[in-house]
Amino acid sequence: MTDTNRVFIFDTTLRDGEQSPGATMSHAEKLEIAQMLDEMGVDIIEAGFPIASEGDFAAVSEIARQAQNAVICGLARAQLPDIDRAWEAVKHARRPRIHTFIGTSPLHRAIPNLDMDQMADRIHETVTHARNLCEDVQWSPMDATRTEHDYLCRVVEIAIKAGATTINIPDTVGYTAPRESADLIRMLLTRVPGADKVVFATHCHNDLGMATANSLAAVEAGARQIECTINGLGERAGNTALEEVVMALKVRHDIMPYTTAIDTTKIIGLSRRVSQVSGFPVQFNKAIVGKNAFLHESGIHQDGVLKNVETFEIMKPADIGLNEANIAMGKHSGRAALRAKLKDLGYELGDNQLKDIFVRFKTLADRKKEVFDEDLVALMQDSTANTDSDHLQVRKLRVVCGGGEPAIANLTMSVGDEEKTVERQGDGPVDAAFACVNALFDHSATLQLYQVHAVTEGTDAQATVSVRLEEDGRIATGQAADTDTILASVKAYVGALNRLLVRRQKTAPDSDSKTVSMYSH
Ligand code: KIV
Ligand code: ZN
Question: When you count CB atoms within 10 A of the terminal residue's CB, does the N or C end of the chain come out lower?
């Protein structure tokens, strides 16, 4: 193994991932995710798009200050004020990077109305400017996979001559396929003078479900940086999933002899946390991190796995940080056992947090005979989603439904310092309960998503509910878990309203007011 086989992992969960409609994260959540990525061994963290909003700028600056190992990168369009703003944000980092881009395909060239020569001049000017500010400059020809090859070679050469140290080749619309992805990198490495002096990166979107395959093909052809996101979060069908490319390189090292610096045992913790803060649930059969990824339910599979795990398992759950034995806890389990179990699941708790979770765990264990790992994860998600300092708090809910009559809900809720009760009818229990919330707290948010999942099997299973609301272009998500599905629904709804309130008041800088279009050059 030589260094030339080292692949850098560039995580853009906080930029391309967060850009996905509805995935907005708070300032504190971004800092937490950045710290987890840094601890996991990500080489470069794209922390945001500093010119997009005050919130993005503040998050990138703070992440730059806090990062211990990773390069911290800020995105900028091909405009001098964008690049200055990105530099202002990342300059606090031990290892800062400016990433500047422009759309080079015919369709993208038409937007700023630049001809080929004018665009080439703009690339020279902006990359030179970025390089005068920062030693580490990444340049991307957006929509590279639909750009004429001659023109792509010409602009990549200009960017390298102007000082770019990484050239990223984005498949912006998820259009390419593995062979073409490899050929494109090979073509650039062969034809562009100076290509051997820079790192080539691959940045794939998943519109045709080929992002992981396209990224790996690019690496086999010579790319040495993969751009990706946790859980494949990102616009439309998302970006290349970090966990997929990293585990593919680890498991199939025999045919892809490349290494990364990722501590793969941190994957599941990050996946859960990103799902929680973005409000995007992970699909059950998602590769590597889906709930079913290591589950063997069919008789033949179970039998095979019991005899020899390798029969049906190509990697161990522990490799991604999942503990293998899902041994249930119960009402007799003590605080130390809970702490140890949560640690196994990727949650390290302080004493106060543990005290609070222990009370919730005991309440759950009283209602449910066996508390499984999935229940504890749901409990953790619920506790971080809804806190005692929230403006709106659900106190008591009673619902009467069935018998062909409209459902009736009676809800007591704290609104600030006041406790109020109301009764409403509805078309089913959830509708009636949500009508109570709306009667107690006036708002104009509309419900964009309402999703219920059973955490485990059995009729006493907890339900996790996700709710997404939209108000004046701001989006907020809420999640809650309870064995009472209607109560979980109301808590998730109220949780989303609390987050909208925070966004309205903006006590902490948030990134929900992106006024800058990626395409206005
Ligand atoms: O998909 C894309 O082209 C991008 C660029 C900004 C790199 O995200
Ligand atoms: Zn992208």
Answer: N
Helix (H) or strand (E) holding 96: strand 96-103
- C-alpha 171 – ligand 1 centre gap (Å): 8
Pocket-forming residues, ligand 1, beta carbon under 6 Å: 16, 101, 140, 142, 168, 170, 172, 203, 205
The Cα 301–Cα 298 span in angstroms is 5
Examine the pLDDT at 228 and tell me if it is beyond 50. yes
- In terms of pLDDT, which residue wins out, 3 or 298? 3
Give residue 419 CA to ligand 2 midpoint distance, Å.
46
- How far from chain centre, in Å, is Cα 130? 28
Contact between residue 203 and residue 167 where contact means Cβ atoms under 8 Å apart: no
- Percent of the chain predicted with pLDDT > 90: 64
- Would 8-286 and 392-505 be classified into the same CATH topology? no
Nearest ligand by distance to the CA of 234: 2
| pLDDT, tens only, 446-455 | 998 898 888 7
pTM value? 0.81
**What CA–CA distance (Å, rounded) separates 16 from 34?**
14
Give the residue extent of every domain in the chain. 8-286, 294-321, 392-505
User: Largest Cα–Cα distance of the chain, in whole Å?
Assistant: 77
Strand positions, DSSP E, 455-501: 463-471, 474-482
CB 85 within 8 A of CB 50: yes
* Fold for the domain defined by 8-286: TIM Barrel (3.20.20)
158 pLDDT more than 90: yes
Radius of gyration of the chain (CA): 25
Superfamily per CATH, domain 392-505: Alpha-isopropylmalate synthase LeuA, regulatory domain (3.30.160.270)
Determine phi and psi for 40, rounding to 5 degrees.
Answer: -75, -15
Confidence of residue 384 (pLDDT cuts 50, 70, 90): low
- Strands (E) in 241-324, as ranges, are none
